[in-house]
Amino acid sequence: MGESNGSTSLRVALISEQRSTYLQLGYSEEDCAALTHDGEIQAVLSTLKELGHQVTLVPGIESLVQQLAAGKHKCWDLAFNIAQGFHGPARESQVPALLGAYQVPHTFADAATMALCQNKANTKMVLNHHNIPTAPFLVIPANEPADSFPKLTTSGLQYPLFVKPVTEGSSKGIDTFNKVKNPAELVPAVQQLRSKFPAEDILVEPFLSGREFTVGILGAGEDARVIGVREFVWKKPSADFTNGVDGHPDLEFASRWSKSSRNKLILRDQDITHPQVQAACRVSLDAWKVFGCRDAGRVDIRFESDEPDAVPNILEVNPISGLLPDHSPLPACAESNGISYAELLETIIGSALRRCGPTFLTNGSS
């Protein structure tokens, strides 16, 4: 390590799975939804260099395997991981697992946390154990015969229900059919999901009709803090609005492009002193700490209803989150709290380095 711009200059390996590479191989936009946008790679790369770091781009897990096998990681002080993987139900854990095996310090959560949070059903089991609110649920195994689905009608879950793949992110596999209003719609919805994700279990839970927030978090453990909250707001062109919010009771949510409303979706910053926002922040921080998330990420929250005292339910814990400027919620949350993009990345690195101890900061990793 050296000194640059008055701060520690690190040799950083920037690891990503580039979306354009997979699109060129013939995969669809939905297939590649969770992969790193080219603009995000360039933004992180250029910003790390502006901060004085020496950056090596590692374009995907195959390149990472080759470089680890060749011993090139011995020249890295830190891996900045923005790769969310592509193949397998625990794909987000693959890069952290390799880095852990080779003892390479890296940003964001370890492999165990990544794998646990990737599976929404397992996430909910842990939340239930720790009395952190999340909607009741059932899982339909991938090999479950279709004639057993009607048993769900006696499960105690109240319609409308919502069905989704258990390990997908970025709203993959989500459209208007996912909201199941009555028993007659359940089997077709599950079969439609199975046609797209034949090897995946399917999560079934009550549809939550309240407000939805994404809570941006920095840090780890007791140092974790909320840096901003954004609300998903859906608009219908034909609807009447109050302060820009469409409160139509039939409005869907969580589709790939428009949260199933098939209309305009906006994100707006929220006053962190609002009681519902404060409630969302509390449960988000609780979940963040329980799962051992680190450095930066998001927790998605949806309220059970629009009542003032409604319970905020955890939808998803995101231990690794997009960093595309002017697009991804996490940097938007940071900006709304006066944290620039460069400061966000610098804070992420600082959080990761604290796990390495004072000897690393003094002498480097090699």
Automatic annotation (TrEMBL):
* Keyword DNA repair among record annotations: no
Task: Name the Gene Ontology molecular function terms of this record.
Answer: ATP binding; D-alanine-D-alanine ligase activity; metal ion binding
* Name used for this protein in its record: ATP-grasp domain-containing protein
Keywords, in A-Z order: ATP-binding, Ligase, Nucleotide-binding
What InterPro entries does the annotation carry?
ATP-grasp (IPR011761), ATP_grasp_subdomain_1 (IPR013815), Dala_Dala_lig_C (IPR011095)
Family the entry assigns: Belongs to the D-alanine--D-alanine ligase family.
ATP-grasp domain boundaries: 124-350
SUPFAM superfamilies annotated for this entry? Glutathione synthetase ATP-binding domain-like (SSF56059)
From the broadest rank down, the organism's phylogenetic lineage runs: Eukaryota, Fungi, Dikarya, Ascomycota, Pezizomycotina
